[in-house]
Amino acid sequence: MELSGIRLFVVYLLLLSIDAQSPQPQIRWFTQKVDHFNPQSNQTFQQKYLVYDKYWIVNESKTGPIFFYAGNEGPIEEFWNATGLMFEMAPQFGALVVFGEHRYYGASVPTANSFEFLTIEQTIADYALLLSSLQSNISGLYKFVSPSSYVQTVAFGGSYGGVLSALCRIHYPWIVDMALASSAPWYLLLGLVNDNSYYRIITEVFQSYNGQCVDIVRSAFSSLNQLLYQWKQFELVTNLFGLCEEMLTEDEDIEWFYLWIKNAFGNLAISNYPYAIGSLPSWPLEYGCTVMLNAFWESSDSDLASIYALANLTNYYYFNNSNYPWDTQSHCFNTTKDFPFCSDHIWCGTGVSAQVWNYQQCTQVVINAITNNITDMFPPSLWDIANMTSYCAEKYGANLNLEEEIQWMRIWEPQDIVETGIDKIIFSTGMIDPWSAGGFLSNNLSYDMPVILIEDAAHHLDLRWSNPSDPISVVLARKEEIEYIQMWLNKDFSIKKIIMGGKKKENNNDNGVEA
């Protein structure tokens, strides 16, 4: 399976390893509009979506809700396998589970040779039209369901998908009744927090395990700067880190080599779960600290001890991640192949999804996570918005202005959303997740816009399958999320909802869609 980058809001395949067996989905296709905002356009494409109806209750006395996952940056199967909470909740609510694939990812490709219609607005319009059709066809297929009845819909999403689930509720409240947005880096997306927050949190979590580990990392990079920039000891460092030849031969390679190292820390922090995933152990970032300490004290060369310790951490991560295969012929790490140059210096990934994410990073999803060696343990970044703008303009068009894009995205500032009267969105944030830098960390935005802060939780851990090793904070957070959803589903619909619900039944998109 190809890799799609964290890409923003980071959905590494290692995060998507399944803890419990996901049910087998029904694969379906929806005839979707290529351009929702041009009434003269009749172009269409086939959008992939997955369905599971084993727990769905639909009879004369009750129609269960739709639990809809707003797919993010990757093939939809990745998120199906990772989002166990929806399947655990579905029997309680008698829900129909639906996962919608994001346009241009996986098999849902509107246009083959350009990303002209790749925007957040087009994506959430896809989801709204798909849901509207599903809701309409329920009454068409089941004659005992009144055409005027309202099929309640709950949107779910994690990371970038969390942003999308919330935006579905914000822009299409007559279709999406409520949303759970987990680990949604909203403030980073809007450029409302410092760019160095992501790596600051990684450093703080590492510090909490053992402050000496942070000291070792700082010392290692200081020594590497000397070895590489001053003494040009490229071959020595290449051998210490197990790199392939030609990976480090000149100064221009050093920044990318450092990013490759930082990528290991970022992935360990994002997947810092209380149970093993694949070949990574439980609490893998904490274990990485132990790996470094052991290597540091075992080193026979005191001058290189910190570098040796850092190399052991990167080897520990990359050897235990099948996404970075060890070159069995050359017996080395090919950093250029594993970590290709792109707009997202956290990591775009490889494969087709990486190309799509690269474009999104150059247009709307503009997040530039940097380091400064003051609030974090890493050397200062050389990549800034100016560099990113230059790269994106050269690759996609001279008229791109990332500063303007960031300003434009601020139409979605949280307080402005609250003032519009939108409600029923849960924002959950894991407090050891580096993406919490852009998450909601304050009190509830409003009575029906709760913010749930989860201690000891990494990236959207609350959406994953339950596990006996889950911290009590995660167990309680899931309980609170379910209670909010139950309360909102039980509320009587307002007159506005009933009227709008009736309107959305008028759907002329003949897709042959089954619900």
From TrEMBL:
UniProt entry tagged with the keyword Signal: yes
One annotated GO molecular function: serine-type exopeptidase activity
Alphabetical list of Pfam families matching this protein: Peptidase_S28
Record GO biological process: proteolysis
Signal peptide per UniProt: 1-20
Keywords: Carboxypeptidase, Glycoprotein, Hydrolase, Protease, Signal
UniProt xrefs under PANTHER family: DIPEPTIDYL PEPTIDASE 2 (PTHR11010:SF107), PROTEASE S28 PRO-X CARBOXYPEPTIDASE-RELATED (PTHR11010)
Family in the record: Belongs to the peptidase S28 family.
Protein name in UniProt: Lysosomal carboxypeptidase
